[in-house]
């Protein structure tokens, strides 16, 4: 099932939607206000909260909120500091696609609320926005508990309910998603939050269409679009248009679907939001494929893939930096606790007097140093493990474009040769492969059954591209439970690609690829064997194999990182046969 795409509504300093007239009235008050005091800061905060949602493409919001922050700093106005930091985080997060910087501002705002009991009522907003970062990184196991915890807060309950509904939609639990969306709309109507009614109606319409409740889906989609137009809810227009395109595509009204997808892409250019633009491109490409417009579909698939690559790079930096920040904070906190304990011990020891003071102080200092070293070593070990895990995700991300690029080129060849039926078949297989690859791209391990399905799809695509120049077979030894055994996703793909491109494509006779999975001494042995020309002959014909070696090098690096993080001894061995090549990958036998 495709997912409701509309971004979960952000928290802009805890104020709901208001019409332009009210925001304009506040703006006039600010312009005529002659004193620089806390009331001026409050007015500026209120104006930003009401107006930013209606004008997300306005590039001045960052400087506006930073000016408000400076005013609050000058007068040491704690509440103003909290709200300004949160609003700046929103600008970086949603308008500038920079969650790393946004996280800094959210954490600063949250720290202010922790230090001031009277400001704890504002924690809802920071928690929601930090939960959204987990959501956007597809870390739903961390996002869902945060949103469930937020149900305790009475303010913006509708927003929390819709957040939970979105996660259930992503997890393909349609009934639960519909339940929470309807509860969210009911709560939003009770409080008069028209922005939230429009937002959730769009998501509900998409989920209903995906569940074959097309009439209900069309009705909720129409309601959302009407509200966006009549109330000028510009922050919702692009994602709601993408949702509408999906709904009409489910109803096979491809002209309307293409209209809304195209309009979303035209409008998204002013938002500077890479997540939103990627979704618009992907949806438009899917619709164009269904309409037989393969040339434009290919162009938009490629554009979406380029943006997705940049998002992967950004995500990696966010994860590493976030862990570094948390690590430093935890280490400082641990040292502060240890220092406090040492001071308390010294104070108590002073009551004893004389030699007792020296002994107690010495004992406290030794204990403090031991605890300091222990805490620091533990934090460093945890951090190194986290970085290694992130590096592993990045290596997997590098793998995806390596074979997707070849598939896109093949589709382009079919289109250029006017072979539309072949292009359609190939594009369908490619879309399935890309979906499966993206679903598994952030997983450390998948089942053997899933990996075999991926390899089958990949080999079928390559077999078609090379006009059946080779046959392939995937064997699993009797007794191996493919639904229980786990391994890194697409680990064998570069070796299979090497067999095809540098072995079998150069062979003058029919080629064969045999992939075998066996269990041996608590290890999973995976082999890729071909009867091609072999590495030496291929190298002499090609001159060099830098492109080929990159994928194989990445795979070897992945295994090295796995060995480091799991304490295992996985390995790769390449055997040159008289005719062809055999690759042997040895992995620890891991069960689900």
Automatic annotation (TrEMBL):
InterPro entries: Bact_2-comp_sensor_kinase, HATPase_C_sf, Sig_transdc_His_kin_internal, TPR-like_helical_dom_sf, TPR_rpt. SUPFAM superfamilies: ATPase domain of HSP90 chaperone/DNA topoisomerase II/histidine kinase, TPR-like. GO terms for cellular component: membrane. Signal peptide: none annotated. It comes from the Bacteria. TPR repeats lie at residues 124-157. One of its GO terms (molecular function) is phosphorelay sensor kinase activity. Residues 391-469 form the Signal transduction histidine kinase internal region domain. Keywords: TPR repeat. This is Tetratricopeptide repeat protein.
């Amino acid at each position: 099932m495709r997912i409701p795409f509309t971004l979960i509504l952000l928290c802009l300093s805890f104020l709901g939607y208001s019409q332009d007239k009210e925001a304009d009235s506040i703006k006039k008050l600010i312009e005529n206000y002659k004193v620089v005091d806390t009331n001026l800061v409050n007015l500026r905060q209120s104006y930003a909260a009401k107006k930013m949602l209606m004008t997300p493409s306005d590039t001045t919001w960052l400087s506006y909120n930073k000016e408000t922050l400076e005013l609050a700093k000058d007068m040491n106005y704690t509440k103003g500091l909290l709200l300004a930091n949160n609003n700046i985080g929103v600008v970086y997060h949603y308008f500038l696609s920079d969650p790393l910087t946004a996280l800094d501002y959210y954490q600063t705002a949250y720290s202010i609320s922790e230090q001031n009991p009277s400001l704890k009522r504002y924690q809802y907003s920071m928690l929601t926005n930090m939960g959204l970062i987990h959501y956007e990184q597809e870390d739903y196991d961390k996002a869902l508990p945060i949103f469930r915890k937020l149900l305790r807060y009475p303010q913006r309950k509708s927003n929390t309910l819709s957040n939970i509904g979105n996660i259930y939609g992503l997890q393909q639990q349609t009934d639960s998603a519909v339940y929470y969306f309807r509860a969210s709309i009911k709560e939003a109507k009770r409080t008069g939050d028209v922005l939230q009614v429009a937002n959730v109606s769009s998501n509900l319409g998409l989920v209903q269409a995906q569940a074959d409740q097309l009439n209900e889906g069309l009705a909720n989609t129409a309601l959302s679009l009407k509200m966006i137009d009549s109330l000028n809810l510009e922050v919702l227009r692009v994602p709601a248009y993408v949702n509408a395109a999906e709904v009409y595509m489910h109803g096979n009204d491809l002209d309307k679907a293409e209209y809304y997808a195209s309009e979303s892409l035209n409008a998204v250019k002013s938002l500077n939001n890479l997540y939103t633009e990627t979704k618009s491109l992907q949806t438009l490409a899917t619709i164009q494929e269904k309409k037989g417009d393969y040339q434009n579909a290919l162009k938009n698939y490629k554009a979406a893939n380029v943006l997705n690559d940049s998002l992967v790079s950004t995500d990696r930096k966010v994860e590493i930096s976030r862990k570094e920040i948390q690590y430093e904070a935890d280490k400082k906190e641990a040292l502060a606790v240890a220092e406090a304990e040492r001071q308390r011990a010294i104070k108590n020891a002073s009551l004893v007097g004389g030699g007792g003071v020296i002994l107690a102080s010495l004992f406290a200092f030794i204990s403090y140093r031991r605890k300091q070293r222990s805490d620091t070593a533990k934090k460093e070990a945890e951090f190194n493990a986290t970085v290694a895990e992130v590096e592993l995700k990045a290596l997997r991300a590098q793998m995806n474009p390596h074979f997707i690029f070849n598939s896109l080129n093949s589709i382009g060849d079919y289109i250029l040769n006017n072979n539309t039926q072949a292009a359609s078949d190939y594009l369908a297989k490619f879309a399935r492969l890309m979906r499966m690859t993206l679903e598994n791209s952030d997983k450390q391990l998948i089942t053997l059954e899933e990996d075999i399905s991926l390899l089958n799809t990949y080999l079928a695509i390559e077999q078609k591209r090379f006009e059946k120049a080779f046959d392939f077979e995937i064997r699993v030894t009797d007794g191996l439970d493919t639904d229980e055994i786990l391994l890194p996703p697409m680990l064998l793909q570069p070796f299979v690609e090497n067999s095809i491109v540098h072995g079998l494509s150069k062979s003058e006779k029919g080629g064969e690829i045999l992939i075998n999975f066996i269990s041996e001494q608590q290890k999973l042995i995976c082999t890729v064997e071909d009867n091609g020309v072999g590495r030496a002959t291929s190298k002499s014909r090609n001159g060099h194999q830098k492109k080929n070696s990159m994928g194989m090098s990445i795979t070897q690096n992945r295994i090295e990182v796995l060995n480091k993080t799991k304490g295992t001894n996985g390995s790769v061995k390449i055997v040159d046969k008289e005719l062809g090549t055999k690759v042997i990958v040895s992995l620890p036998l891991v069960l689900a």
